[in-house]
Description:
CATH topology of the largest domain: Nucleoside Triphosphate Pyrophosphohydrolase
Strand order of the largest sheet: 7-4-9-8
Strand content: 35-45%
Number of domains: 2
CATH superfamily of the largest domain: Nucleoside Triphosphate Pyrophosphohydrolase
CATH class of the largest domain: Alpha Beta
Number of strands: 10
Order of helices and strands: EEEEEEEHEEEHH
Structural class: alpha+beta
Amino acid sequence: MPGENPPPFQSSIRDGEGWGTVSSELKYANPHVQVYLSTIRTPSRPDGAPWTVVHRKGATVIAPMTADGRLLLIRQERIPVRATLWEFPAGQIDSAGEADDVTIRATALRELQEETGYELGPEGELIPMGLFFSSPGFTDEHGHLFLARGVVPSARGSMHDEAEAIHECRAFTVAEVRRMIAENEIRDANTMSTFARLSVLGFI
């Protein structure tokens, strides 16, 4: 609530090297976002610049790949844009402090199973591919990108969160996903960023 200042969600973003927080006032908070009106010192603005900053927990984004090289996408309702989008599975990292590698990887594996109904097979591997900022003009939200190579159907099936509306999960060839991006059928930033990272790292 306004007037209260809980610490922002734990993040890898830190002041330093010309960056600093001059002031920060909480304007709105819920379990998923915190909105602050802040004054931030930058390398080119030593007196500080006023900015509205939305803090969000970090997330994982997973590109599930089957043994035959196909990629799994889920089709999920996204209320803010009034559309049902094809996406790679993703989910926020719930951590009381700054998330370590073990927590981040566990989140990726959990979201893989819950949203797609797949898990790593006996020869499968979870490969980290770095992180990216989804919209750094107003939020510190960032995603840790993973390739889950060698996934197989899970005996537990999918276990969607009650707030999610996932319509289906389907396997696509790399060529099909590339076409879907080119034809604007895939419009989700997480998915396009993960596909780009898969490409430049030589996984596809």
